[in-house]
Amino acid sequence: MKKIIVTPGETLAYAEEFEVKGSAYSLDHKYISSVLGAASFDEKTHTAVVKPLKDPAMPQPGAVVYCQVTGKGRRAYQLRCFAVEGQKGPVDLKYTFTGVLPYFFAEGELGIGDYIRARVISTHGPPLVVSIRGATYGSVLSRCPRCGSVLKRRGATLYCPNCAIEVKRKIATGHYTANF
Ligand SMILES: [Zn+2]
Fold first, then answer.
1. pLDDT tens-digit map of 48-95
2. How many CB atoms lie within 10 A of CB 146?
3. Which residue, 24, 106, 171, 174, is the most exposed by fewest CB within 10 angstroms?
4. How far is the CA of 136 from the centre of ligand 1 (A)?
5. Which pairing describes strands 47-52 and 19-22: parallel, antiparallel, or unpaired?
């Protein structure tokens, strides 16, 4: 099974090669994609299916996503979400999504540059709206605001091995990657 990303107007296949189903139309013995989507070609049955990209690519409410904090707004952290948690761990998204984490759903502090584990609560976007309420959500990797070193976890706090300071962060229990 070959899988490719296709854009609207892109030729998918000649009609004698493949029968194309889904978001495609036929024109001059060719199949043309009508959407930005993912096209799966089954060489054995000579059929292909085009599905719009937005739904499968956009993490749905309840999905666990990994994002980096890119800014702090008046009401929310701004994020860039780049992976979604699969059965065997984080899987990179084909496209990154902008996200927001309202302070209301933060339950603690984060810093710019932090990598976080969060849960999607709304997809009326982009941006995705996420929450880090709950023990297993929050920072999975933070850097020292002073020197940029990766902060190490010591119990419930983060500590810079270089500056010997403690930094307050909402840590994702069981998911923080740098431990003493
Ligand atoms: Zn430091």
1. 999 887 655 678 889 999 999 999 999 999 999 999 998 888 888 877
2. 11
3. 174
4. 25
5. parallel
